[in-house]
Amino acid sequence: MNTFAGLSHEENYTIEITNEKMKKKYEKKVRQKRERLKKCDCEKTKEKLSEEIRKFEIEIDEYENKDKGIPIKKLKPESEVKEKFVFDKEEIFNFNEKRKREKEEEAKDKVEARKKREKESQEHWDKWEERYNTWNNEENARKEKKYEEYHKKYKQQQQRQQQKQQSGKKKKNEEEVTKEPFDLKPFIKEYNMKLKDVPKDIMSLNHKFSLEEYKKLSRKYHPDKLLGKQDFMYILNGIKEHYIPNDQGNDETWTK
Prior knowledge:
The chain has 7 helices and no strands. With 256 residues, it is mostly helical.
């Protein structure tokens, strides 16, 4: 007895559509199961419904295509053997020449554009430099004018001061002229001298005193030039004190 009985069919898989009526029946079932599938929340039920819908669709498809037979696979036409491409040297040369000319034109355009930018930049900076020089010249002219005005005022002030000094000296000289000569006899006795021992230029200074002459004689009869002899310098200082008394008092820091 042969125990091999073949493969058992799947449970509940006894579907076989043989006419249009059965086809419509199963199409209706497919629609109902799809609606149930949308409303269902259980994963197992969803899986079972999906499987049943798939089986029904397969059977419906088989029924619709039962008279068409097995589709014959169309064979692709054998591709024709392409001829080996051969480069055209003349065409390549012409293409290269064309690209060369295009690159040269591009380089030329770039050079011209750069020169144009440099020219515009140079014109801009030339204008700026001209404007700066104008400002600088105006500033220098203003400073020079101000300096001239200041120098003029300073010069006028100096002239006024000189005039005051000259007028003061003139008045002083006039006052000095009005004074009588200094009596040298009692003054030179302290130094054991006589009038004949006093130089003539010192005697003339005593009769006609001036500061310039006094300074000149002070340099002449300075003790350093006369090997330490101070008598003539004392006489000159006495004459000066007679004509130009020293009215300066003691300062605040002076103590006896």
